[in-house]
């Protein structure tokens, strides 16, 4: 029996395929971090930790006949999960009538996992020792101007790009903003005939995204080349069978993921 315990469920393969499709579809709609981060993996569920390198400090140290690696540590890949249940009477009705099972609960669990993944990417988890793009020590922090007026937003982003260039950090620039800032950019810039959001999108070659995970009043500019950061994936998002209780069936949507920030200077936070 596999660790997903699907063999223990009475569900036919056809229904499992529909669950898998629903989970992937819902997760893709909700995910933001994976739209600009390179994915390292999937490495497999058996891989519990990966190396996290400080690109600027990485090197070998030789002493007394021993060689060790400087600027590298091994970090556990956390598991992200969310549970849902399907009612036995709904499954039986679908079996007898041919009416498709409503998989809304599976999609909700997938969306919850996707948002949890994004929270880990952007904010990490202080209690568990994980750093996020906005919380890591050493990232560039700029005071954000009022993006609802003038060319403040364009000026802030251009300034952030100039900083990255001065530090010799190039490629795969991306800007992620909170929903309120996204709406503030939906205005015509006088004298240009362009929406402010379109002008800024050109600065980052169209890699401009929004996510509710950021809350309000926040934006982050990154050089997301895999030399600077990536997302380590052990087990990619999937669904496991848990148990049958009170006739109903319980499932778990899960994944193991770890954002790896290898170069702190590749991040500019506006807040």
What can you see in these coordinates?
- The protein has 271 residues and is an alpha+beta fold.
- The protein has two domains: 158 residues, Major capsid protein gp5 fold; 84 residues, hypothetical protein PF0899 domain (hypothetical protein PF0899 fold, 2-Layer Sandwich), CATH 3.30.2320.
- Helix content is 28%, strand content 30%.
- β14 and β15 form a beta hairpin.
Low-confidence runs: none
Total strands: the figure is: 16
Reading the helices and strands in chain order gives HEEEEEEHHEHEHEEHEEEEEE
User: Strand fraction band?
Assistant: 25-35%
The CATH topology assignment of the largest domain is Major capsid protein gp5 fold
Radius of gyration: 22 Å
Q: What is the CATH architecture descriptor of the largest domain? A: 2-Layer Sandwich
Mean pLDDT: 95
The total of helices stands at 6
Instruction: Quote the distance from N terminus to C terminus.
Output: 49 Å
CATH class of the largest domain: Alpha Beta
Overall 3D form: flat
- Find the structural class using helix and strand composition: alpha+beta
**Count of domain modules:** 2
Largest sheet: 5 strands, mixed
Report helical residue fraction: 25-40%
């Amino acid at each position: 029996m596999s660790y997903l315990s699907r063999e223990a469920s009475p569900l036919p393969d056809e229904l499992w395929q529909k669950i898998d499709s629903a989970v992937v579809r819902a997760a893709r709609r909700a995910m933001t971090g994976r739209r600009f981060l390179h994915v390292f993996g999937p490495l497999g569920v058996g891989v519990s930790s990966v190396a996290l390198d400080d690109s600027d400090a990485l090197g070998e140290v030789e002493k007394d006949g021993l060689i060790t690696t400087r600027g590298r540590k091994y970090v556990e890949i956390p598991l992200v999960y969310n549970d849902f249940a399907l009612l036995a009477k709904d499954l039986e009705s679908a079996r007898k009538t041919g009416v498709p099972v409503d998989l809304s609960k599976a999609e909700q669990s997938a969306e919850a996992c996707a948002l949890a993944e994004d929270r880990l990417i952007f904010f990490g988890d202080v209690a568990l020792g994980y750093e996020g793009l906005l919380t890591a020590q050493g990232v560039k922090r700029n005071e954000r101007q009022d993006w609802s007026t003038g060319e403040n937003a364009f000026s802030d982003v251009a300034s952030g790009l100039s900083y990255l260039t001065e530090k010799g950090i190039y490629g795969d620039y991306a800007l992620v903003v909170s929903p309120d800032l996204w709406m503030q950019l939906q205005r015509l810039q006088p004298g240009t005939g362009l929406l402010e959001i379109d002008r800024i999108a050109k600065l980052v070659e169209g890699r401009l995204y929004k996510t509710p995970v950021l809350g309000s009043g926040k934006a982050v500019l990154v050089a997301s080349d895999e030399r600077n950061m990536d997302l380590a994936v052990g087990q990619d998002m999937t669904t496991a069978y848990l148990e049958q209780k009170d006739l109903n069936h319980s499932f778990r949507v899960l994944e193991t993921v770890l954002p790896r920030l290898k170069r702190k200077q590749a991040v500019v936070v506006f807040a």
